[in-house]
Amino acid sequence: QADIALYQAKDSGRNNYVFYESEMSNRVKHEVQILSELNQAISEKSFQIFYQPKIDTLSERVVGLEALIRWFPQSEQAQSMSSPAVFIPIAESRGLIREITLWQVGQLVQDIQTLQENGFHDRVSINISGELLSHIENLVEFLEVIEHSELSFEQLDFEITETAYSKMSASVSAILESAQSNGLALSIDDFGTGYSSLISLRQFQANHLKIDKAFIDEIHRKKDDFAIVSATILMAHGLGKKVIAEGVETEQQFRALRRLKCDFIQGYYFAKPMPLQEICEFIK
Ligand code: C2E
Ligand code: MG
Ligand code: MG
Ligand code: MG
């Protein structure tokens, strides 16, 4: 279609329009290329899971792990799209999340075995796409796969963004709460970046709240950010939730958070996300 438009545009002799259309055409080709590689990655199961530790602020011990998907594509074009922040939304819009999520469960079953052998007995968090939550049959299938696997809800924590929470239907919410009563932990991810932070705090019975990196970056030198994080932690504690700070990169940030009684820390200051073997070493 873009090529037809290009042909018509040339005829009309409007150069700007022609340029715009050929850009479009390139972008379409680019996306087609990436999608075919993404599909290939799904069918060949060539993703990997990296794990980033969650650290207890006081004891500085590992108290949990977050599973973060990694994709190492072949072509240079797709390499620019290899960050999950980029390809997960593409996968969401193309209905590929179900496949990816099911692959992850299979991988987790194996990895948790190894983690336990290396002395890890806490929860692994997985990021749950809003797309999965908007297809109730996919969510139910996913939970059933977990139940029928060697995994148990006591070993898992679902990280759900505020935005995904706010779009969730009552029936999906009820399904998650029932899994929660069977041991699943729920976390509000990227807290503070959605449109309804306070409403989501009141409405969702999450166990943990993850303060977005945007509020942590300058917490040690910006009075306003310090005040926002301080109030958020007090509020969360008042509601019986534990708080995790995301994206902690420096000792100053860590100290500020310890002063504010933030429960847990995640960030490069302690550890980057790493492959299974490395995380086992780290835990030891
Ligand atoms: P998120 O769940 O909020 O994950 C935190 C992101 O911050 C991760 O990026 C992590 O690698 C990065 N990070 C952690 N500590 C630091 C730090 O100190 N400094 C900086 N600059 N970054 C830090 P990543 O792995 O690229 O993932 C980006 C987003 O993609 C995630 O945000 C999550 O929304 C999504 N995502 C990742 N893996 C999955 C997955 O398996 N399934 C789904 N549905 N989404 C995923
Ligand atoms: Mg997360
Ligand atoms: Mg986050
Ligand atoms: Mg995020």
UniProtKB/TrEMBL annotation:
Q: Where is the EAL domain?
A: 31-284
- Kindly list the residue ranges recorded as spanning the membrane: none
What's this protein's name? Answer: EAL domain-containing protein
The organism's taxonomy opens as: Bacteria, Pseudomonadati, Pseudomonadota, Gammaproteobacteria, Thiotrichales
Q: Which organism is it from?
A: Thiomicrorhabdus marina
